[in-house]
Amino acid sequence: MELLAVKLKNFRAWRDETSIPFKTLTAFVGRNDVGKSTVFEALGVFFGHELCKIDSGDRCVYAPAGAEVSITCVFVGFPEELVLDETSVTSLADERLLNADGHLEIKKSYIGDRMKEEVFAVAVHPTAEPANDLLQKKNAELKKIAESLKAQADYRSNTDLRRAIRNAVADLRPSLVSVPLNKEGAKEIWSALSSHMPLFALFRADRPSTDDDGEVQDPMRLAVRQAIAEVEPQLQEVRAHVERRALEVAQRTLEKLGEIDENLSSTLAPRFRSEPKWDSLFKLSLTGDHDIPVNKRGSGVRRLILLSFFQAEVERRRSSDSITDVIYAIEEPETSQHPSNQVAVVEALKELSESPGCQVLITTHVPALAGLLPIEGIRHVTKDSDLRRSIESGDRILRRIADDLGVLPDLHDGRVQIFVCVEGPTDVEFLRNISRVLCEHNSALPSVGTDPRIAVIPLGGGTLKSWVNKRYLRELGLPEAHIYDGDVDKYQEACEEVNARGDGSWATCTQKREIENYLHPLAIKLVLGVDVKIDDSCDVEELVAAALGKSKVKRRRIKNILNEDVAAAMSFKMLQERGGLEEIIGWYRKIGEHLH
What we know:
Blueprint: E1 2-9, E2 18-21, E3 25-29, H1 36-46, E4 69-76, E5 82-83, E6 89-90, E7 104-111, E8 116-126, H2 139-149, H3 158-168, E9 174-180, H4 184-194, E10 199-203, H5 214-230, H6 232-260, H7 262-266, H8 299-319, E11 326-331, H9 339-353, E12 358-364, H10 367-370, E13 378-383, E14 389-392, H11 397-405, E15 418-422, H12 425-441, E16 454-458, H13 464-470, E17 480-484, H14 489-499, E18 506-509, H15 521-528, H16 540-548, H17 555-568, H18 572-578, H19 581-592
Parallel strand pairs: 3-12, 3-13, 10-11, 11-12, 15-16, 15-17, 17-18
Antiparallel strand pairs: 1-2, 1-4, 4-7, 5-6, 7-8, 8-9, 13-14
Helix pairs in contact: 2-3, 8-9, 12-17, 13-14, 15-17, 16-17
């Protein structure tokens, strides 16, 4: 199942009911203490994450005393059929448990000082008697209603009785209501549905200092939980067998007790107190050299382990036939990471979100990371003067984030004189490395990367069009230089729009396929140890991946290596031999024209 939205009401900072939409990759961007992590905590409560427990302190301080706290999740991709037992099969549509959009909307409500949990389906449900509360009735009650309506049904099956009763009522008067899922047939449905809920994996930004460091242990715990989910049918068989045999012993014990004291025996009944916790039976941990616990290593190392886990998950999910739906929620993935690793984290998460059955959620207050993500998944979290929280999204979101957080370099000293805009962060590295090569040969050319007058901004492929069309930098009054890959038609359209401005800005697409096509095969050989033949129109990443073996280095990682390490190994002679030298020099000359 895929999470479509969550609605929060009176949960911590989220006072008024607010609906927050999700994509397969969703980024919450905003200032500190604005409520980003609270969204993750709410999801943790909803999905029963072991680190997320609700109490009365989670009720919004501005809500009336004892006010209901609710967390509502909306899903798509739910199962078409639900098997309640060996003879009963039903569906959410048949039971009238879908909302007006045909989605599954589950509301968890918490009331009183003890925050008792109640579960509801917010659905277009019958309100006409006697069809309005059939899910709350026992078999005997359903039989009685069916008989009164002369409804034909299998009287042994509650699902068939409910279906027959609804068919016998002329006007069900359907309306959007909250249907309790806490007893009888509704409870059976909720129990069956719960097994299809996605796993919720939460990776917090604040790192515990205990030996069971959650930042390292959580991926390992998740690995155990996913493995258990894959064998859930077998475990249910084990559970049923154990319960059946244990109840037989308990029943025989009560029969013998009845022979001694019938009154005492009649007051006792066998009942299992809780569900078995399979994941608590397996403990998986990582230990460093000399048995040094990983939590004793630097926080950057621990986060790199987390990054490696996400990368490994991509490969596992692509090769596995048994896939469990998972929602990965990662707070501040940039924490304790070098800028190049921050990019690697985002790239890994983007790739993970493209895997079947995966959703990735992140929080950040670093707007540069938001610029690397598809714009449709960015959520800007804000609060007004009354401390009410709200969610903003859409085409104008980057401008608002820029205003709120400051997406651009510090302009107060007046040193920045031109913005150089490229598609992504690897293009920034290419321009910096090639600039060093050119400046060694011609000192009159500008030094991109070291000259404070030049600000290089990666716009992000998914957000580039918005930056160009909305002209978010226009109010700063500085010229812009745009350099994009030549293999994407929409980039040529963006160049035409920039060049038509008449304000000194200019844009160009590479004459070769991509910026990586200007690299020399010898530089690739020096860095990666493989021979490749490069022309102006080939896919360099694909060629290098094939030469290395795709299992050895991931394609996204290859792009980083090419623009960082291989570009750094380039010489002026290599640029000449590869062709396109005059074109590249022309880029830097155009940039230099705006420097004074």
